[in-house]
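pls ignore typos typing on phone
zinc ion + seq
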Amino acid sequence: MLEQIRGLHHVTSLARDASENNEFFTRKLGLRRVKKTVNFDAPDVYHLYYADKVGTPGTVMTYFPFPHAARGKPGTGEVGVTAFSVPQGTLKYWEQRLVENGVTGLRPEERFGEKRLAFDGPDGDGFVLVETADDNRAPWTNGGVGNDEAIRGFHSVAMRLQDGDATAELLRFMNYEEIDREGSIRRYAVKGEGNGANFIDIETLPLINHARQGAGSVHHVAFAVENREKQLEVRRALMDTGYQVTPVIDRDYFWAIYFRTPGGVLFEVATNEPGFDRDEDTAHLGEALKLPRQHEHLRSFLESHLEPIRD
Ligand code: ZN
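k done
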């Protein structure tokens, strides 16, 4: 049993247009872009990070915008919905704000006793805002949304799976416990003290085909551990249980390991250290194009080939 995991760290998705993506998260949702870098494995593609003021784990939504990507086809074997936490009584504000900003797919919902507002991301991405009591995380408030309404970070992700049982067993191994059930959806919460992004929903849909990944799809979901030592403990335990886990990879702002889960979703375990301010002042996070050491020699090529992002 793993006791090192403290909730979600980040969610990484695919997009088509970098400027549209940037506008959606910074201007419409009011998050802060805390890093503008490139996909370390494909450096001719941006990697954009949106979060709170400093990129606190549990608040970090990241994107790979591939300019010519086809839209994904939703289905099973993926994270279908990414949920952000907002204060109680703010969904009216958000509904009006999203309508005024041309956001589509708005649907008020209720699940597990929580009021939610579903909406579509720029490429049809599945999002919801969930009214959450007692979420004490400090929001970013320089993005046009005030302290009383601003997004606090992630609430949860919801996976759609043909067979949820093996993934549920994995979540229990990762120190999550089932706390509720509604129809075909089971809710899991991290045991002990989480970072606020504490929930995972599993929706079991045996008759729905597998998703085809593309723009608007979640690429992977990352879980938070405090440091590299705890990450190595998690890696060892997962491998002892039979999972194929990658070696530890340096992502400059955190250390990462990845493994494929039984339901098809790619999981990552990422460290809280060193964080997004390791190469930029907090006051200027996300402004300059940051490249990892191994791609610094490509800077002039990348600066002339990456489409500039309209801020
Ligand atoms: Zn990641």
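Residues 8-305 form a domain with the 2,3-Dihydroxybiphenyl 1,2-Dioxygenase; domain 1 fold (CATH 3.10.180.10). Residues 10, 12, 220, 222, 256, 268 surround zinc ion (CB under 6 Å). more later
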